[in-house]
From TrEMBL:
Family, as annotated: Belongs to the thioesterase PaaI family.
Thioesterase domain location: 54-123
UniProt keywords, alphabetically: Hydrolase
Record organism: Streptomyces durbertensis
InterPro entries on file: ACOT13 (IPR039298), HotDog_dom_sf (IPR029069), Thioestr_dom (IPR006683)
Annotated protein name in UniProt: PaaI family thioesterase
Length: 139
């Protein structure tokens, strides 16, 4: 029987497998299925840059983190992995809003995983940023 990653397990990964500064982003896993994870990045003035928009660094870290959760869900459990490549496109500023970060695994191999990530203001239809990620699976 294949392993399955629960929402509780996924949220536990956020505190157990990530650096303290990533934990400080306040991310939570709000949806999870076999090849997709949705994380909420809560608005914080601490993450805003000049002009009041959410910093790209925070969005990129959230996309990277969502990828780990989605790949873990696709594999049924967490295993060692590392970012090989991340390409992010910013389409509009995010101000004073939580962000839903959706990572979808589109190819899961024995050694590599490929995902697409969208970052959308809570309640919006269109993404404010998108990313593609490539991960090496280390076990």
């Amino acid at each position: 029987m294949p392993l399955t990653l629960s929402l509780t397990d996924a949220n536990r990964l956020l505190t157990e497998q990530f650096a303290p500064w990533v934990v400080d982003l306040g991310l939570t896993v709000v949806e999870l299925d076999a090849r997709r994870a949705v994380l909420r990045l809560p608005w914080s003035d601490r993450l805003a840059r000049d002009g009041g928009g959410l910093s790209g660094q925070a969005l990129m870290a959230a996309a990277d983190t969502a990828t780990v959760i989605a790949v873990s869900a696709a594999r049924g459990a967490y295993g060692p992995m590392t970012t090989v490549q991340q390409s992010t496109s910013f389409q509009r500023a995010l101000r004073d809003t939580d962000v839903l970060v959706t990572a979808a695994v589109n190819k899961l191999g024995r050694r590599m995983a490929f995902t697409d990530v969208t970052m959308t203001a809570d309640g919006a239809q269109n993404p404010s940023a998108t990313a593609t990620t490539l991960y090496a699976l280390l076990d």
